[in-house]
Structures are given as C-alpha cells and as structure tokens.
Amino acid sequence: MTSIDTQDLTKEYGSNRAVDHLTFRVLPGRVTGFLGPNGAGKSTTLRLVLGLDRPTSGTATVGGRAYATLDEPLRHVGALLDAQAPHGSRTARDHLRALAAGNRIGAGRVDEVLEEAGLASVARRRVKTYSLGMRQRLGIAAALLGDPPVVLLDEPSNGLDPEGIIWIRELLRRLAREGRTVLVSSHLMNETASFADHLIVLGRGRLLADTPMRDFIHARVEPRVRVRTTDGPALRGLLTRHGYEASEDDEGRWTVHHARVEDIGRLASDAGLPLLELSAEEGTLEQAYLDLTAAEAEFTSTPAQPQEA
Amino acid sequence: MAFAPVLHAEWIKIRTLRSMLWALGAIVFATAAFSALAALDGGGDFDPLFAAFFGVSFGQVAAVAFGATAVSSEFQAGALRVSLSAVPQRGRWFAAKAVAVGVPALAVGLVTGVVSLAVGTAVLGEKANGLTWTEGLRGTVGCGVYLALMALLAAGLTALLRSGVATLGILIPFLLLVSFVVGDKSGTVADFLPDKAGQVVLHETPEGTLGPWSGLAVTACWTVAALLAGAWSIRRRDA
C-alpha cells in the first residue's frame, strides 16, 4: 500500500509553527487536492514528507517508510516542488539524465517523459530559454521519471497556458486511475475542483478538513434551486406557504434557498404551476472553501502569528 | 543506494555545464600563461622550478572557481532539494559531489603541471638547466594535487557557507593578497596556510619548516576540514 501518512507532524522555524500536529493519510487511486492559503504550511509539509526538512516532532512516511530510507527513491515517489530548480544553463534532457542516472533509470525513459510532457522538440535547449509553463512541464517530467506509484506536485498549474492546464488535469486523473497516490497542492479553487476527488485543507499549519470533495462542498454550501415560471406571484405564495425563502432577480428568475430540485419540482407540479426552468445551483469549491476559512477565522481571530510563506 | 550511480549523476551535472568546462580550461591557460610571463622575468635569486610553476598562483583561482561553482549551483532556486530527493543519503551525495569535483580537477591539474613545466622551461632556456628530471616530475604531480586540493577546499567551504559568492569573496582575496603579503615571511605560522604550505612542492629548494610532501599534507588537512564542515552542514541543515 503506497499511501502517504503523517502522524502528529510538527515543524517550527524559530517561534513560528509552520506545521502544527498534522495527521492525515493520502490514499492511492484518487487525486487529493492539498489546499490552503499562502503560508498555510503546504510546501513545508511536502518538504517534510520528502525528508528535505527535519520535523520538530512527529513523522511522515511514504508506503510506511521514511523517505530518506528509500532505495532509488525516484522509483517510489516523484515530486515537483519548484519549477525554477533546474539549472538554467543545462538542457532539459541533461537535467533529467543526471536525475535518472542517480537512480539507475535508463536514458530511454528520459526521452519518454520528455515526449509525455510535450518537451521532446525543445529537450536540447537550455532551460533558461524556457517559459514558466515549459519549466512546469519539465518539473512534471522529472516527477514521472521513475514511473513512481506516488506523485507529489506543488502548484503544478502555475504558469501553464490553457492547453497545459487541460493536459495536467487529464494527466492527474489518469495517474489516479492507474492506482497511483496523487497529492497536488494549489491555491486555485476552480483548478483544484476540476481534478480532485478528495481534499486536505490546511490553515496556519493545522488540518481543517480531510474529506471527499463532494461532501466538502455539500456540507458547506447551501443547496439552491433556480426557477422560472409564467406566474411569479403564484410561485411566491406557494414557496412562502411551504416555508421556503426565495428571491426574484430582474429577469424574473427565482432563487430558492436551502432547497432541492426534487422538492420544488414536485410542489410546482402539485400546484399546477407552469415552469419554464428548474435547475439546481451547484455549490462551488470556492464557496465551500471561503466558508470554511471564514469560520476558521472566527476561532482564530486573536493573536495572529506572523506567517512565513 | 550504490555509490557509482550517484557519482555518475554528479559527473553528468559537472560536464553538462559550460561554465564548469570553462573553469577547467582556465586552470591550464592561466597557469601556463603566467608561468611563461614569470619565466621571462626571472632574475636575481630565483627558483627555476617555481618560476616554471609561478602561474599556479593564478591558475588556482580558476580551480577555486571550479570547486565553488560546482557546489554553489546546488544552492540556487531549490536545486539541492531536487538533488536530495533523488539521493536522500546526504553524506553519500556530498561524497559523490566531492569525487566529481576532485577527479577532474586532479586530471586537469596534472595536465596543467605538464604544460606549465614545458612552457616555463622553454621560456627559461639555459636558466632551467639546473632542474633535474625528478624535480620536474615532483613539481608536475604536486601541481596537480595542489590544484585539486584547492578546488575541493572551495567545494567544502561553499557547502558550509551555502554560497559561491561568499566562498570566492573569502578565498580569492586570501589567495591573491594575504598570501602575497605574509608570504615572504618564512618560518612562521604563515608556512601552514593552505596555499603557502601546498606550494612548497613547486620549489626546487624548500624554504621554511615544511618539505614538499609534508606541505601538501598540510594543505590536504585544510581541505579535509573544509569538506567535513561542508558535509556536516549538508547533513544537518534543512535543504
């Protein structure tokens, strides 16, 4: 089982606690979105998982083992932390060849991942000629180098063009379908909503949520129904009688709060009210996330610790 | 993890950076060029062997730049994190880095020794007649070992300071100024400075307390200390 586990993971930089008693498990076969505002501790957590930073207390393991004890770790875990990391004066291919050599991965695999990342035609160009989007693709190619069962990506959509965004979305979904463990940090809600099955949300280094994305949204965003009818006053009367709160916009479209289409549709039908439109208004991840962080802010409004990015 | 693949990776990193290759070339060029100039100027109570190797004082700057750059490139924009994600055994990783710096520096240093001696003696002409074959060999080997040790000293110091600029800012003024200033006073602690001690091997007749090989051993001690300090820093600190 190749899950990522953290147990009571804590990291302090001086007096600043970047990661605060974090316990979670990232499971294979799905894409887990790793959310939180800047400075919430996402990148620090990823570095702790990769054994790059030493935890103040607690443990982080991949497949039950500390990362630093893995033999040829690129075959177990692929990671993109910082797209700027490859040396600008080296070609993309040479950068990947050096990484591959250290983990006894063949040069053939280097060309494969370059092809997969859409960089084959520019593989022999120096990295300093690359756009940010191309560097992201190179970082993702490096993460895939060892064909690892676990993939960690820190803000992979940064700087990607629309085509690149679609590519990464499909890549992440495919990696999860293949049964891999995929953890992707982001602060872009719409982007995360497009690929994540599960969410882990951090705030000030602490775990705020660890839940399937659907549940996360449904628990936090009130369900609403949009209705259009030929007889507005009748609709208003009907809704009021049944205890629904509703409002009408300028174009005669009604929004019914805390309601589901099943209930409103049946009410209208029983009352013989002609409907022109009836639709559920899906809550967005962004709404749910803002609701969570607003609630969190209420509890933590007193001494605001300075946060490090 | 085995050592050989890690060393292979580090060697690829060195040979795929043009600046590394330039620095290696500069070692040969600077040494030979300044040795030739010094040989032209040779007069008074001069040491014919050191005249042929005089350029080492300048070639070592290129060797220091080579060692410092090889390590400092890891401290740019999270490169070290990529390296240590691929090779989390930090001690082994740094050992591979040191070998990947030391071996090419030694090879280029030996070539530098041969070229510098050839150019130097050619320019010296008759004044080099007193040099024996063994003295020339000793100078050539010493030149190679010395330059490799200086490159490794810089590599270790860079790992400790996590900055190539800081390393060069310390080493280059030290090599070019301090040693020239205190360098003439033999028989003092100055004999035990890394450059002064190591350059004894380049003289026909050693002055001061150290001999050719004991001098190189003193330089090696400085280098080992710098490498151990660098390894300690790499192992202990967050990447």
TrEMBL record, chain A:
<keyword id="KW-0813">Transport</keyword>
<dbReference type="GO" id="GO:0016887">
    <property type="term" value="F:ATP hydrolysis activity"/>
</dbReference>
<comment type="similarity">
    <text>Belongs to the ABC transporter superfamily.</text>
</comment>
<keyword id="KW-0547">Nucleotide-binding</keyword>
<dbReference type="GO" id="GO:0005524">
    <property type="term" value="F:ATP binding"/>
</dbReference>
<feature type="domain" description="ABC transporter">
    <location>
        <begin position="4"/>
        <end position="229"/>
    </location>
</feature>
<keyword id="KW-0067">ATP-binding</keyword>
<dbReference type="InterPro" id="IPR027417">
    <property type="entry name" value="P-loop_NTPase"/>
</dbReference>
<protein>
    <submittedName>
        <fullName>ATP-binding cassette domain-containing protein</fullName>
    </submittedName>
</protein>
<dbReference type="InterPro" id="IPR003593">
    <property type="entry name" value="AAA+_ATPase"/>
</dbReference>
<dbReference type="InterPro" id="IPR003439">
    <property type="entry name" value="ABC_transporter-like_ATP-bd"/>
</dbReference>
<dbReference type="Pfam" id="PF00005">
    <property type="entry name" value="ABC_tran"/>
</dbReference>
<dbReference type="InterPro" id="IPR017871">
    <property type="entry name" value="ABC_transporter-like_CS"/>
</dbReference>
From TrEMBL, chain B:
<keyword id="KW-0472">Membrane</keyword>
<keyword id="KW-1133">Transmembrane helix</keyword>
<feature type="transmembrane region" description="Helical">
    <location>
        <begin position="94"/>
        <end position="119"/>
    </location>
</feature>
<feature type="transmembrane region" description="Helical">
    <location>
        <begin position="165"/>
        <end position="183"/>
    </location>
</feature>
<protein>
    <submittedName>
        <fullName>ABC transporter permease subunit</fullName>
    </submittedName>
</protein>
<feature type="transmembrane region" description="Helical">
    <location>
        <begin position="52"/>
        <end position="73"/>
    </location>
</feature>
<feature type="transmembrane region" description="Helical">
    <location>
        <begin position="213"/>
        <end position="234"/>
    </location>
</feature>
<feature type="transmembrane region" description="Helical">
    <location>
        <begin position="21"/>
        <end position="40"/>
    </location>
</feature>
<feature type="transmembrane region" description="Helical">
    <location>
        <begin position="139"/>
        <end position="158"/>
    </location>
</feature>
<keyword id="KW-0812">Transmembrane</keyword>
